[in-house]
Amino acid sequence: MASKKRPETQKSPEVVRLRSRRSRSPRELEPQAKRLRVKGSGSSRRGDSGCLWAGLASLQVPPPCSSIIRDLYRHKLGEAAWPSLQQGLQQSFLHSLASYQIFQKAAPFDRRATSLAWHPTHPSTLAVGSKGGDIMLWNFGIKDKPTFIKGIGAGGSITGLKFNLLNTNQFFASSMEGTTRLQDFKGNTVRVFTSSNTCNVWFCSLDVSAKSRVVVTGDNVGHVILLNTDGKELWNLRMHKKKVTHVALNPCCDWLLATASVDQTVKIWDLRQVRGKASFLFSLPHRHPVNAACFSPDGARLLTTDQKSEIRVYSASQWDCPLGLIPHPHRHFQHLTPIKPGILGTTSLLQAVIQILVSKVVPPMN
């Protein structure tokens, strides 16, 4: 059988010279190959002396880094088309992600982590809730042992976690234990906002507005409850036919509320005009149960994820129509839960993620 010919590839002068010296063994060439790898692309592939030729063949010169400012300026002058600008934005974002690596790891729970919340004033401090109801306050900037609050175990899953911006030594938590509460990191419960007093009803989502001093929470039978931070219930309405998986207050207009449900809808509400289950501003139908509906930091976008294979991006200018659908297949219960960028990079990173997702499916508006 005739041997397959290797495709022709462009070679640097150094590689050509190395291959022309057939009399030298790969082991003799190893130091020079290492020098080439240092000066070359900076690839993380490490070839041993027996794989010298494969290592040299893998050397590539990286494309020049794109400048977002230059691309935006050229687009403004009409010198760069939208696809070129879109590609430049994506390359810049992906280039920044390439520098991320694991900094620290911890495995304090006997069940999976279900909630995350970054401390609002200490960037290296993170609150983590687990499926067993355990809560950990972890300052990974110091070597002290993390603060740990033991949960009840099975049935105590923490479904929502938010720091109290009026007192950052406290946090709000919703749980499958059947409560939405305010507590501190000494394990003391400061206030119970909602309590189902039954194992058949539990709370699946939570959000808080420090500006308006309100707490909103949703349960597994479709109710959404609005309270003030003093614990007074403002209303309790069945807004969905099934479990409310996520509630989110708009970060810029905190009277705007998004609720997601396994009834395959996301609804947008004006908290100042809620009169009943039919008083929503918009209802966004989905093809599958919805896991989450998250506003972008500027409040102008809404990103939803379902339980099958869709990510949707909506715009404030047309809540009732998605800007685009992004396929993202996964298998049930085989996913990251949850993930949140650090507080120092939250705005820029999330805005970039939203923008990149939008740019994949939406042309610019004239």
Automatic annotation (TrEMBL):
The lineage of its organism: Eukaryota, Metazoa, Chordata, Craniata, Vertebrata. It comes from Castor canadensis. This is DNA damage-binding protein 2 isoform X3. The gene is Ddb2. It comes from the Eukaryota.
